[in-house]
Amino acid sequence: SLTDSPVTLKILQNWVPRVSHYFDKEHYTYVGHQIVIQESIEHFGAVVWPGALALSQYLESNQEQFNLKDKKVLEIGAGTGLVSIVASILGAYVTATDLPEVLENLSYNISRNTQNMNTHKPEVRKLVWGEGLNEDFPVSTYHYDFILATDVVYYHAALDPLLATMVYFCKPGTVLLWANKFRFSTDYEFLEKLCNIFNTIVLAEFPESNVKLLKATVREN
């Protein structure tokens, strides 16, 4: 049920004023590390959206509740890689996935921000929602403790394949953490579909940015 009252939070502006001369780099601080993100204005997926800030902040602040150390984490629609970088700093084995055209920028950000850390080296892979899941991520081999997704509900033609992808990767024992800015009625329709399939609770709400953070798990029969 969605009746448990979620925590109301503000998205902290965990970024420091830009010191670089490049218009396309943002500097953030999470878990005591400065993270430099290169954005690309050509792609939706290469900009830091508010859901990514919300989830990064939540993971940093709730490490006891969601301990990522040595856990297998899959981020779908990783975009610029901010959430994957934060999960990696927190000690997870991270696989960051997105569309082929976003992977170069994603790989750049992840390698740049994790190369000198004593953490598991994140993996970057192509994942087109709903396509080739069995071939690329066979169930026999791939099991994730956490699925992370931020601001993935945006492009409405992709919502059915997105839901199918979430269902594919969420096995018993997997926790899906999804943070999204709710803009359109279709966003709430997607939420309703998610609630019909999974046990879903709202963990936190960030009212000033219309972001909700949800936790979903498989219904055990």
From TrEMBL:
Xref: InterPro entries: Methyltransf_16, SAM-dependent_MTases_sf
Gene Ontology biological process terms in this record: methylation
Record's keyword terms, sorted: Methyltransferase, S-adenosyl-L-methionine, Transferase
Residue intervals passing through the bilayer: none
GO molecular function: methyltransferase activity
Keyword Magnesium part of the UniProt annotation: no
Pfam (any one): Methyltransf_16
Domain of life the protein comes from: Eukaryota
The keyword Repressor appears for this protein: no
PANTHER family linked: HEPATOCELLULAR CARCINOMA-ASSOCIATED ANTIGEN, PROTEIN-LYSINE METHYLTRANSFERASE METTL21C
Protein name as annotated: MT21C methyltransferase
Source organism (scientific name): Oceanodroma tethys (Wedge-rumped storm-petrel)
Gene, per the UniProt record: Mettl21c
